[in-house]
Structures are given as structure tokens and as C-alpha cells.
Design goal:
The chain is globular, with a radius of gyration of 18 Å. It is of the alpha/beta class. The chain has two domains: 197 residues, Rossmann fold (3-Layer(aba) Sandwich); 107 residues, Rossmann fold. 36% of the residues lie in helices and 15% in strands.
């Protein structure tokens, strides 16, 4: 999407076309490779900048979002940051509705970018840093109330096709172009399911033999058909114990992988120390899952993953203790 040989009209055009890097240090001594797409290098420091742009531009083009109309969305912070950037440039007031369980760096960043941030309290048995599906339901109710009150456009990342389209039209094809199509599998931590759905669709069209795996937290693998025994896990931005993610297409899912909090944290820290990639919990989960594949069904093969967001968004959490 970027054009590096000319000045860009706005930072919106800097979204996408992120680098693809081989994690050769983490895989040293193993048979196989991991290719990581550095989406934390987007302007808002996450892959969600892509969907923010696509959702808003689709809605403007289709007449569902009027000039100057307010935009509202629930967020763990990353989609909200992307929407704050895109809406600010395009002249739409933006209201981000977020659980108090998410890291406060995200709320501060969205506010700095011009968003109105509404923080919603957690359920009595929830703890900061551990946002459950029940917590998300509280945020959803508040988002719906604000949409009605302000006659706003709901940038619904869990349902709108722009989420899928951002990754189907751009992220997936970028992987294929940058790697020369040279990978055998893809695994992705499920939040809304948009990046998995869009990339998997692009990959299957390119080469049906590419295996695509959904990554979930251990104890909250409801998409794999398990009961949620640990909904208050530490991997922020997904694993909400929601059994139905509308954007996911079952025919594109070749399997499910589970990652524990400890594994996600350990690999995120190794990514920082050994690969110089300062990313968050879900990026650690993705690489931990890829390493599982290299030890099992994908031994000797190449696995593609996304580095979802920046470690800067977790400085107040125990990820970097």
C-alpha cells in the first residue's frame, strides 16, 4: 500500500506494507523457519491500523458514514488507536470504549490522538490485565448505548467486512509477495478473527496446501470446542471465550493450537532479547504456536505469523517485569 518513492498525502497511506523477517535466532538448531510480519511498525503500532482504514474507507465509499459523523467502537486499545488516527485525519470525532482491564498505555495513546476514551469497569471476579468475555459484554453494552445516543457510526470490528477485507486485500498478498509464496503454514491468535480469516482466504486462493491454524489461550480454547476453564488469561486482545466469531470461515481452518500465558510471555521476552522485536502478548503467542508446529506437523517447513502490536503498549503490565 505504501509508495516509498514519494511523499505520502497523510500517515494513513503509511499503513501496511510492513517488513517480513525470518526469526532465525529463535529457531536455531530446529528444522524449519518462522517468517514474522512486523505489523507493530504501523503508525498506531499494531495490525489494527489496517482494519481501521478499511472499515472507515468502505463506510465512506458506501455512504454509511457521513462527513463529520461520530464513530464509536469497543476496543482493547489497538483498533481504537487505528481509528483515532484515521478518524482524526478524516474529520470524524471518535469515541473508544474500552475495559479498564486493558493496559492504560493504550487509553493514553488514544486520548493523545484525539479520541474520547470511555473506560468500562470489569466484573467483580476479573483482574486488570485479564479481560474476559464477560468484561467485553459490559463494554459492548456501553458502546451500543453511545451509538444510539449520538447517532454514531459503529465501526464494528467483530462483524464488518472491512476487517476481513483489510487482510484479504493487503496483509495476505503482502506475505505472498514478500516470501515468494514460500511458506507452508500460518498461525494466528484469534481476537476478532479478522486477520486469520483474511489472510487464510488469500493463502488458500494462492495455494490450497498452505495450512492455517487458529491460536487460542490455554483454558479458553472455545473455538476449538473446549469449555472455558480459564477465561481470565493474560493474553490481551483476544481469547475472549466467544464461541462464534462471524468473520471466521470454517473451511479455511486446518486446526487449532493452544498457548499458555507462560509460553506467550516467555516467547515475547525472547523475541525482544534475541530478535530485537519488541512486541506484545499475542505476538509471543503466535510465535510460541509456530514453534509448536515446527516441533510437530511442520518439522522442516516454514510457518508465517504476524507480530500484532508493540511491546510499548504493555510497559505497565507484568510482561516486562
Amino acid at each position: 500500500m505504501n509508495q516509498q518513492n514519494r511523499p505520502l498525502a497523510s500517515v494513513i497511506e503509511a499503513i501496511g506494507d510492513t517488513p517480513l523477517v525470518e526469526l532465525s535466532r529463535l529457531t536455531k538448531g530446529m528444522s524449519g523457519r518462522i517468517l514474522a510480519k512486523l505489523d507493530y511498525l504501523n503508525p498506531g503500532f499494531s495490525k489494527k491500523d489496517r482494519i481501521a482504514r478499511q472499515i472507515i474507507e468502505d463506510a465512506e465509499e458506501e455512504g454509511r458514514l457521513k462527513p463529520g459523523q461520530t464513530v464509536v467502537e469497543l476496543t482493547s486499545g489497538n483498533t481504537g488507536t487505528g481509528l483515532a488516527i484515521v478518524c482524526g485525519i478524516k474529520g470524524h470525532p471518535f469515541v473508544a470504549v474500552m475495559s479498564k482491564g486493558n493496559s492504560m498505555e493504550r487509553a493514553r495513546m488514544m486520548a493523545a490522538l484525539g479520541a474520547e476514551v470511555v473506560l468500562v469497569g470489569q466484573l467483580p471476579d476479573s483482574r486488570p490485565g485479564q479481560v474476559s468475555g464477560g468484561d467485553l459484554e459490559l463494554v459492548e453494552r456501553e458502546a451500543q448505548r453511545i451509538v444510539m445516543e449520538r447517532k454514531a457510526f459503529r465501526a464494528d470490528q467483530f462483524r464488518l467486512a472491512g476487517n476481513f477485507r483489510a487482510h484479504y486485500l493487503h496483509t495476505g498478498p503482502e506475505f505472498i509477495r514478500q516470501s515468494g509464496g514460500g511458506f507452508d503454514a500460518f498461525c494466528d491468535f484469534a481476537g476478532t478473527g479478522g486477520s486469520f480469516a483474511g489472510c487464510a482466504a488469500a493463502f488458500k486462493e494462492h495455494n490450497l496446501s498452505i495450512k492455517c491454524f487458529v491460536v487460542e489461550p490455554e483454558g479458553a480454547a472455545v473455538l476449538a470446542g473446549e469449555l472455558a476453564t480459564r477465561p481470565n488469561h493474560r493474553i490481551q486482545g483476544g481469547g475472549y471465550s466467544m464461541p462464534d466469531l462471524p468473520l471466521l470461515r470454517p473451511e479455511h481452518i486446518d486446526g487449532y493450537l493452544k498457548v499458555s500465558d507462560t509460553q506467550a510471555v516467555h516467547i515475547a521476552r525472547r523475541l525482544a532479547r534475541e530478535e530485537g522485536i519488541f512486541a506484545g502478548f499475542s505476538s509471543g503467542a503466535n510465535v510460541a504456536a509456530a514453534l509448536q508446529l515446527l516441533r510437530t506437523s511442520c518439522r522442516g517447513k516454514t510457518v508465517a505469523v504476524i507480530m500484532c502490536d508493540s511491546g510499548l503498549k504493555y510497559l505497565s503490565t507484568d510482561l516486562w517485569e
